[in-house]
Amino acid sequence: MFKKSTLRRFVLPVIVLLGLLSMWFFVSYTALFPGYALPSPPAVARSFKEEMLAGRLVNDIIASLWRVAVGFVLSAVLGIPTGLWLGQHIHARHAFLPLLNFFRFLSPLAWIPFAILWFHIGDKPAFFLIFMATFFPLVLATMSAVATIPSIYFRVAQDYHYQGLELLRKVTFPAVLPQVITALRVSYGIAWVVIVAAEMVGCQDGLGYGIWEARNGLRLDSAVCYMMVIGLLGMGIDRLLYQLTKLPNVRWGYER
Predict the structure, then answer these.
(1) Angle CA(74)–CA(79)–CA(84) in degrees, nearest 5?
(2) Long-range Cβ contacts of 97-105 (<8 Å, 24+ apart)
(3) Alpha-carbon distance 98 to 102, whole Å?
(4) What is the Cα 23 distance to its own chain's centre?
(5) Residue 217 to residues 84, 212, 213, 214: CA-CA distances in angstroms?
(6) CB 220 within 8 A of CB 132
(7) 3 band by pLDDT with thresholds 50, 70 and 90
(8) Are the C-beta atoms of 209 and 60 separated by less than 8 Å?
(9) DSSP secondary structure code for residue 92 in this structure
(10) Are 2 and 11 in contact (CB under 8 A)?
């Protein structure tokens, strides 16, 4: 007998996936859409094999992962400390909040012309676009988490004479860490969406460029292959980030 947790986590998703694949096979077999508009699963599988044997898919995966990693790490390294500082200083928070919200609502794709003019083509414009897409949500999420820490935490910290870095290390950061990890997972998803668009216009390799090239060559089977790889990579790295929630110092924030 399966446990209920096993059923929820594994069996039900597999059933949904099999159902989706069955629908895809049915639509392809009955030719509800022409092959050039909706490639069949066998055609996508052949395209995947072709791209792997040619080495293009592996190179594009490495290029995209590198760009996402650099841009995302830069935004986290700068955004989380900025959010912590703004959360602890109410006047600075009120001063910068409108500006942060302005840039948060500004689509990162609007920066594409500037990214190309400033950094030309290659890795640098992709780093810049990912940074602009993820920095402001991370700052706002961290800042909001700090601002909502119960005041009793700080009153107890005063009794123990915690100040400065000690207060940050023992009270503030542990209190906001669950929310920060959630913000990292959400921001990572944004980064993965942005890198596809960035590579379509500013790079000569990568998964986004692969989709663009497939579109220009009317190879939708190859485009679907790249789309599936993007989704699977995104899910895999999100699961890695999810493992952070199981750390002893973090798990309490998800069990309340």
Answers:
(1) 145
(2) 100/136, 100/139, 100/140, 100/143, 101/140, 103/132, 103/136, 104/136, 104/137, 104/140
(3) 6
(4) 28
(5) 48, 9, 6, 5
(6) no
(7) low
(8) yes
(9) H
(10) yes
**Widest Cα–Cα separation across the chain:** 73
Both ends of the chain: CA-CA distance in Å? Answer: 30
The two three-digit tokens of residue 31, written as one number:
């030719």
Question: In this structure, what token pair is assigned to residue 12?
Answer: 């039900």
Distance CA 60, CA 67 (A): 11
Interval 38-86: pLDDT, tens: 888 888 888 888 888 888 889 999 999 999 999 999 999 999 999 988 8
Torsion of CA 93, 190, 197, 109, to 10 degrees: -20
Range from 32-41, 161-170, 173-182 that averages highest in pLDDT: 173-182
The pTM of this model reads 0.82
Q: Which tokens belong to 167?
A: 């207060």
Asked if 53 and 115 touch (Cβ cutoff 8 Å), the reply is: no
For the chain, domains (ranges, CATH) are 55-255 (1.10.3720.10)
